[in-house]
Amino acid sequence: MSSEMLPAFIETSIVDKKQDLSEDQEASQKPKLGVEPISKRQMKKLIRQKQWEEQRELRKQKRKEKRKRKKLERQCQLESNSDGNDRKRVRRHVVHSTLRLIIDCSFDDLMVLKDIKKLHRQIQRCYSENRRALHPVQFYLTSHGGQLKKNMDENDKGWVNWKDIHIKREHYSELIKKEDLIYLTSDSPNVLKELDESKAYVIGGLVDHNHHKGITYKQASDYGIDHAQLPLGNFVKMNSRKVLAVNHVFEIILEYLETRDWQEAFFTILPQRKGAVPTDKACESSSHDILCVGVDGGLDSDSSEEEYSRNELTSSHEEEKQDKENNTESMVNSLPH
User: Fold this and answer.
1) Is 196:228 a contact under the CB 8 Å cutoff?
2) What CA–CA distance (Å, rounded) separates 128 from 122?
3) Do residues 140 and 172 lie in contact, with contact meaning Cβ atoms separated by under 8 Å?
4) Contact call for residues 266 and 252 (beta carbons, < 8 A)
5) Which ranges are annotated Polar residues under compositional bias (predicted)?
């Protein structure tokens, strides 16, 4: 090789080496096939999907048991009615209460669409429970309009055909005499002992995650109407804050009208997640550590069934959170890599 060709050969070799090096770097930066990284969101989705699949049989079994229970209830009703006119026989046992129960929907502008939809579902539940109750109340839906009416028009057009319900655009104060009104709010210092069926009880139709605490009490005070809270603290001790959904309050009142027993009404309606126990048992279980003191009673109709105060985390919540984290770790470890 001549001395003139040598520099060109060296330069070409250097260029080839640089190209090979850049290609190696690009290849190393490319993710290997089948080992793509998984984000936290994807991992959570995989865990939820796996849990859903694992609980499929359990859900199926629960649905089967529910169908059997309803079938048995229908058979019992048929057996108890001897004249063959079963549906009419059953309806004869229904005694309509004169008590008026109002859901105040005047808080429409304080809720986002997600919470409006939750309120709509709770109202649907109230309507269906009142229709099949043994002592149905005079059901009122007041200040009906805005986002709530729009959502009902779009997703539940059949509401215009609802029976045994008074759906009004007017505020409840325009429909019922002030002396007949009692607003149910946990901030009231007054505790109900009995329900007066000549009165009209108002439930605040508000799902707000506790952002507007005390607003129903303030409204009752501003309008100069009576207010009270359900005697929840007299009968029930709960692990979580006493936050009840609109439909829970409604159903508790329906249950009380049937049984005339507050404790039975509370324990029939309250969800299991609330960890509710009778106050006397709660006192006995804690007597080894501290003296049993009175429990502050009340319901919070300003918040939904699903909403808890973010600032009130008890030790039981912390333990539950830790258990969930441990379960999540074990699920992640069991997923195929």
Assistant:
1) no
2) 10
3) yes
4) yes
5) 328-337
| Structural domains of the chain in order of their starting residue, each with its CATH number | 100-274 (3.40.1280.30)
CA distances in angstroms from 187 to 15, 146, 227, 269, 274, listed in the order given: 81, 27, 9, 22, 20
137 and 94 Cβ atoms separated by less than 8 Å: no
Separation of alpha carbons 15 and 22, rounded Å: 11
In 3D space, the residue among 195, 109, 108, 127 whose CA is nearest the CA of residue 166 turns out to be 127
Using the CB atoms, write b or e for 236-251: b if 16+ within 10 Å.
Answer: bbbebbbbbbbbbbbb
Question: b/e per residue, 188-224, with b = 16+ CB within 10 A?
Answer: beeebeebeeebbbbbbbbbbbbebeebbbebbeeee
Q: State how far the alpha carbon of 166 is from the alpha carbons of 101, 143, 276, in Å.
A: 10, 11, 33
* Alpha carbon distance 247, 120 (integer Å): 10
Burial class (CB in 10 A: 0-12, 13-18, 19+), 55: exposed
Q: Write out the H or E segment, with its range, that includes residue 68.
A: helix 56-80
For residue 39, the number of C-alpha atoms closer than 13 Å in the C-beta half-sphere is: 3
- Catalytic residue numbers read 208
Measure the CA–CA gap between 321 and 29, rounded to whole angstroms.
38
Determine the Cα–Cα distance for residues 95 and 291; give it in Å rounded to an integer.
45
First and final C-alpha spacing in the chain: 56
Contact (CB, 8 A) for 255 and 264: yes
Band (pLDDT 50/70/90 cuts) for residue 318 is very low
Burial status of residue 117 (CB atoms within 10 A of its CB: 0-12, 13-18, 19 or more): middle
Q: What digits encode the pLDDT tens for the residues 76-135?
A: 777 665 554 544 444 558 899 999 999 999 999 999 999 999 999 999 999 999 999 999
